Amino acid sequence: MPDIQLLLTGNEIMSGDTVDSNSAMIAQVLGEQGLHIRRKVTLGDDPTALRVELADLAQRADVVIVNGGLGPTVDDLTAEILAAVAGVPLAEHGDARAHIETWCARRGATVNAANLKQALLPEGCRLVPNSMGSAVGFQLPVGDCLVICTPGVPGELRAMLPQVLNRMAEHLGDFAPGDVLRLQTFGLGESTAQQLITDAGIDWPASVDLGFRAGAPQMEIKLSVSDRAHAGDQQQCREALYSLFGDHIIGQGDTTLAQRVLELLAAEGSSLATAESCTGGLIASMLTRVPGSSAGFHAGFVTYSNAIKSSLLGVSEQTLETEGAVSEQVVIEMVQGALGASGSEYAVAVSGIAGPDGGGPDKPVGTVWLAWGREGDIRTRGLCWPVERTLFQTMIAAAALDMVRRMLLGLDSEPRYFAQRSQR
Fold first, then answer.
1. Cα–Cα distance measured from residue 13 to residue 121, given in angstroms and rounded to the nearest whole number
2. If you ran DSSP here, which 8-state letter would residue 246 be given?
3. Fewer Cβ neighbours under 10 Å: the N or C end of the chain?
4. SS3 of residue 357 by DSSP
5. Which of 84, 16, 9, 95 is CA-nearest to residue 46?
6. How far is residue 8's CA from residue 184's CA, in Å, rounded to a whole number?
7. Partners of residue 297 on adjacent β-strands
8. Does residue 176 have a pLDDT over 70?
9. Sign of the C-alpha dihedral computed for residues 31, 36, 37 and 39 taken in this order
10. What gap in Å lies between CA 160 and CA 183, rounded to an integer?
11. pTM of the entire predicted model
């Protein structure tokens, strides 16, 4: 496998003012092609340290990706550092200058000296176009190593990575690319998934590496092969995982619960409404992050107070008084109200105690009732998810979407987290 290394620059990363998400993005995009980062180094804006480190990386690696330090300010040092390591002067690059002038003209801005600093690049370098920002990327060989410099702005980097991959492929020549199949799941922990696989006694092919990436609310399972010639083994493992816990698998790649629900609604020509109390609109927010969500999501009601539950969704004041806001009957009436007010075919409702205060002996912090369904088929479940407030909201919003997903798919099996989280 080629030796690929990263050099990330910037005082803001070292101080914690900026969280480094770029190295994760680069690793994920490369990983999908079966390429792996061997080493990652992060340094502040220290010219000497950067020069020494880049020279060292270039001696060892086939490719070094430098991220950050391409902007118009004095602490953007990447161009001069690479020039020094390569032993070439800085020179104004005509195409880079033209890019900057066009970028400024489109925004009605005047080209100034700070902008033009971004056109001073190592002599002989090749540009990596940046369709979004003013700073172009560039590449230059240092010995047998190809150094590719990219901007630190995440959106710009993401748009440039396909080109970065192409330049890497040109430099590396023939190599057998691998492949990573990513399965998105909800309601399974790493230990549970691993134990199920172990207990099943699957004859796991040596050519397929199994990996897990835990997150909130989803967990990713990765099936990696170092050579696409082993794609058949990879698919065999995928089928084995679906047979073990397929009802917990949402989809492949970057699929989210919200995306999957909206896809299923579109296939059925139906729509969904949400009625939320403890999640404060998070379910609706998850849905509306998906482009085109208006086709399947018609209305969201955030009814935090009892008075609004009654006036907006028609929840009975007597029910609220006798059962309390966190109760099965209240979420049933919230679903009925959301169906009636929105005209949607489906609705989901949640009401719970997110904490850290507000719980009691009968209804401790983490208690929540969910209801979901359509007219004539409304289902409910009471759970207790006693975790930190923000995580509680995230997991409950995801569970609500998961139950809608399961209903749309016609899945009768209960998710494993019901047994773990059901109210005692």
1. 24
2. G
3. C
4. coil
5. 9
6. 29
7. 272
8. no
9. positive
10. 25
11. 0.79
Question: How far is 90 from 18, CA to CA, in rounded Å?
Answer: 29
Q: Are the C-beta atoms of residues 368 and 351 closer than 8 Å to each other? A: yes
Mean pLDDT along residues 255-269: 98
The one-letter amino acid code at 402 reads: D
Set out the domains of the chain in order of their start, with CATH numbers.
Answer: 4-172 (3.40.980.10), 179-252 (3.30.70.2860), 257-421 (3.90.950.20)
Residue with tokens 């914690």: 16
| Packed helices 78-86 and 47-60: angle between N→C axes, nearest 10 degrees | 50
Which ranges constitute the DSSP H helices of 227-316?
231-245, 257-268, 282-288, 306-313
For residue 368, the surrounding DSSP H or E stretch is strand 367-374
Confidence check: pLDDT of 174 > 70: no
CA distance 249 to 131: 36
CA–CA gap between residue 253 and residue 166 (Å, rounded)? 21
383 class by beta-carbon count within 10 Å (0-12 exposed, 13-18 middle, 19+ buried)? buried
Tokens of 218: 């989803």
Q: What is the dihedral of CA 186, 190, 195, 200, to 10 degrees?
A: 50
91: Cβ contacts below 8 Å, ≥ 6 apart: 120, 121, 122, 123
CA nearest to 400, candidates 266, 233, 272, 243: 272
Q: Which amino acid is at 189?
A: G
pLDDT tens per residue, range 93-142: 999 999 999 999 999 999 999 999 999 999 999 999 999 999 999 999 99
